[in-house]
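Lab notebook: predicted structure, single chain.

Context: the supervisor wants predicted structures on file for every construct in the current expression panel, including those that have not yet been purified. This is the next one on the list. No modifications to the sequence; it matches the entry in the shared construct table.
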Amino acid sequence: MSKREFRLENEYPYNRSGPKRWILSHTFRYPWLPVLVLITAVINNFAHGYIQVYIGRAFDIITAPDWEARALLLAALGAFGAAATQGLIGLARNYANEFIAQRIERDARDELYGSLLGKSQTFHGKQRIGDIMARATNDVRTLNIMFSPGVMLVVDGFMGLVAPIVLIGLIRLELLLVPALFLVAFFITVWDYARQLNPVSEAMRQQFGVMNAGLAESVSGIEVVKGSAQERQEIEKFVQDAASYRNYFVEQGIIQARYLPMLMFFIFYAVGLFHALWLWQRGTLTLGETVAFVGLFRTLRFPTFVSIFSFNLMQLGIASARRILELINTETEMDENDAGCSQPMRGQVTFENVSFSYNGAGDGSAPVLKNISFTTQPGETIAIVGQTGSGKTTLTRLINRIFDVGNGRILIDGVDVRDWSLESLRSQISTIEQDIFLFSRSIAENIAFGCADASRETIVEAAKEAQAHEFITSFNEGYETEAGERGVMLSGGQRQRLAIARAFLTNPCILILDDSTSAIDSATEDQIQQAMRRISSQRTTFLITHRLSQIRWADRILVLRQGELVDQGTHEELLERSEAYRRIFARYD
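Prediction complete. Output recorded below exactly as produced.
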């Protein structure tokens, strides 16, 4: 079983060894539906074929010297019954096939979303959001279209070939010669068509992801685009991507224009007509059998015609499934370790010779952290200082396993963080960063994120502690005000206060503050710091900041330089003995 940071309970075991097997495993999750589609397709096409049989029988009746009106009426009723059966069974077939299509789209989207939630931060850091969105929306939707109408047309088309051939054989075995030759030519030309179409369909899906990723980046970074006056360049880039996508459509159209099965049908239809008339002239066939044969052969036109669309939809669906599986099957570095330690934390954190590189240990790249060792006691406040790029933020991200250590180990309450249940570990650690992410939801929902059962009273209390209540209530809708995507409707200081309120509400055992008050004015910061000091006395706090007022009230200060811990101690101790700290202190001052 692959590693994942999160997995759903009672997850269905899909076969992910290849796109076709994966699609089949989704289909056979509801086994009665494909069986129903197949049965209704058989009945539907045989009913359609029997219409031609009854028409031929009617010709034999009216050309007989002593024909009876009763026999003709029975033939007409038979044709009507076959047509009615075809119509009613067709509805059942369409319903079953549409049901499969909608179920598979829903299940595939759920599976992909659950898989993405289980991937590590390293995985997500390497992905383009627009490409992921293209796979989660357009590619998943293509799976739906592959089944409805794609698979329905393939199954119906296949039975549309089988049923007329069987009925032709029941009329006269000699009549099977030309249809059999047509089937050979049909399958050869369809195979060649699919062979040419497959790489184009694959490239088309890939290019759509590239185009969508570029669009998403431009929209997300619109402020940078406008600020740098790069609108024209971004338009040109998008036009180039869109032109490449268009070119694949043109190439697909050229392949479809050379579609040979329809040419094969008309050639063999003419030959079959000649063969039937020749047999009729020799007296081997009756006129009605000839008419029935011609009518049945003509029904082969529909499966031949729809194959140009159905196989294209199938190829696109398989290409989309392959792109979806690329994401799902990508291995991640961490596992949720559901059976791991899940006890309440006291807050003791120990680093033992910890080294870390973003590309992994042993790859030759320069480590971000090198041989870091220290221990914090429960309730202690630790300030981390150092120049930009010294590894301060990276160090704190190792505590809650956003990243895993390359060498050494990190212990919380004496237990290696890799031996903790990931959910228990992260639910007891809260991080407030400078770049605050808010969801496009109400302010109340953003504060309560991570504590979904919080009451309105506790949400308001947390907002008051974070000095956010006053600006929240100034909005017309108060706590129900929409924050906008990524909190775009709020200022930087307001977003930071909401993040602090979220941390207060979740009441973590370990609190990480990464320059969390950088966008807040001094007066408000003083009020927030008082609240932070109150809650910091009850938990272990890691503080990354450039503000001396916060550094001074820390119990201990860690000094980092180029990824190494060069000294640690109180503010006064470090001023006295650490040249590196004095340089940092002078810069901050």
